[in-house]
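Data's thin. Show one?
=====
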Amino acid sequence: MGSSSFSGVKRIIFWDCLCVLGAQKCPQRWMPVALWRTGLLLCFLSLCACLEEECVLGVVGRPVSLPCFYPKLQGLVNFSIEWRRDSEVVLRSVWRNSENVETLSANSATIPADAAQTGNVSLELPAVDPKEHRMNYSLIVVSEGKQSAALCTACLRIAASFSPPQLQREEASPGHETAFFCHSTGGFPEPAVYWLINNTEKPPEGSVRTRTAALPDSRLFNITSHLTVNVSRNTNVSCTIENQPMNESLTSTSYGVKSSPVVIRASEAMWIFSTALCAVVGVMVVVGVAYQVHLDRISKRKKREYQHQQGNRGYKWRNRLREENEAMKPEAKETDV
């Protein structure tokens, strides 16, 4: 990497932007105003994206490499290399006759052992410490008592993943507000917190309170967010922890007590079965009552017939007995007076 502040890609984007700006001032009336405005916006976004790519992402606790190649280093004999973080020297390496004779480094930072032969003087950091969100590094070469300008510059962006958020829901009595607690730990830098109600609605203003606490040992962050809102029990509430440097969005959702379609279908089937069972039982009861009434009628009719038969038998028996009695009486004798 040379001493120029723009890389090859940056130069192309830079000249494209200049061309667009120049086209704005051209007296050509056929060029629509919206066209050059769009081109200017695109080149600006491209330049910003290119500048953003210059930052190397370092994850806390993991090694990271800051790339730097300086081919002219192969022609030097006696020189020293310094990697600096702002004004602080992170690594100083002294070379004599293209051989490394001394290396002083902070936090065990290193460069390749064959840097003088290959021109690869990339800085290797064994672990990233979340001191700041971004840190700028630069490479300086001192040869024959002369210090060069910054031959390589690198932006190190520090980040660490947060744990999946834990979302708790505290139900309130009817007519009162429900409290939600969203908690996540061990991330860097401070994240953004978003709440959604039923996946679409934002909570009312003033209903969210978020607190971030830095851990003293690791300098990582714990975050706790509180949402107090008046919602029904079947409302879904989501909490999202967004860590932009890590390009991570972690979401946790508290689902309401609304029945799922499977439960609803099961309830409907049970209701239909209960209704049919009640109808069958009702029909059986009606049939049973009707049959019992029919039996009672038959029993009564037989009883009457029996009583009638017994009555006829008694009448016949009495008539026969009377006849027998009359037949046994002596006939009255006639006497002359």
Summary: The two ends are 185 Å apart (CA to CA). The chain has a mean pLDDT of 79.
